[in-house]
From TrEMBL:
Location of this chain's protein in the cell: Endoplasmic reticulum membrane
Recorded family membership: Belongs to the SEC62 family.
Domain of life: Eukaryota
Annotated region (Disordered), positions in chain: 218-280
UniProt xrefs under PANTHER family: TRANSLOCATION PROTEIN SEC62
Keywords, comma-separated and alphabetical: Endoplasmic reticulum, Membrane, Protein transport, Receptor, Translocation, Transmembrane, Transmembrane helix, Transport
Membrane topology category: Multi-pass membrane protein
Record-annotated membrane-spanning stretches: 124-146, 153-186
This protein's name: Translocation protein SEC62
NCBIfam families in the record: sec62
Membrane in keyword set: yes
Pfam families registered for this protein in UniProt: Sec62
Amino acid sequence: MEQQLKAPPEVKQVAEFLRGSGASLKTRAGALGGKRIDYFKGKNAVKALLSPAFAKVKGVPKITTEEEATKLLQAVNAFAFFLRVQRGPSTGKSSTTPRILQINQEQMFAPPEYYAWFYEGSQWTTYAGGVLMVVIMLAGVMFPLWPPIMRLGVYYLSMGMLGLIGLFFVIAVLRLIFYIITVVVASPGIWVFPQLFADVGFVESFIPLWEWDLPKKKSKKKKSEKEASSSKGKGKSKAPAGSSNGEGAYIEEIVEESAPSQPQRRSRSAMVEEVEDEDA
């Protein structure tokens, strides 16, 4: 847009920060004029300007209060880096589908409002990735023309990678065999490299060296949640039956009192009592 080209350097720097990954600005996908577009809530942008990451950015005004952040974001909005929009219903039945957006005629910045991005940010990473992909494809196609020493280096590198993958499978099989033996000899069994398949780094996968296969203890939080759900289930079973007019009735079993000399006999009689609606 032409307005974005006229923006001062500090305003463009703020928009660059918000659009980048350093701001951690939460964005959602919307539909504006049949096109997919990102939008965010104003209060999230205010939090991004008050974060320590923005304080490290050079060439931008220092922000210490929410009022200063709102004023700076109003300046960014004035140069159409993002525009105020109204959020409509979802374009599909699922809650994850984009919502319909419509540009508001009155442009201003307020934390409770929604704003759609009309600025893509720096594209150097996209261009660099495209150039790198083209270079890799050309290098693969022209592999027969490589010098012999380079082709030999690629051959040894590929053999080394295959060797590492094979070693990983050998370790996995050996640790399984060792675990089965220790289950019989020294129950409950020992796992060698217990973090081998865990979502950790390469070095952490081999630490610790071994570990007993002990069952994991359930946390107290899960137990309290189960007790709460069971108590709710009991409470629901004793809840009165509601009627269409907001009133309910319940049946109570009454034990008839008899003389001491005679055995007590139970008779089931129904008593209907009106229960007032709590929401009234």
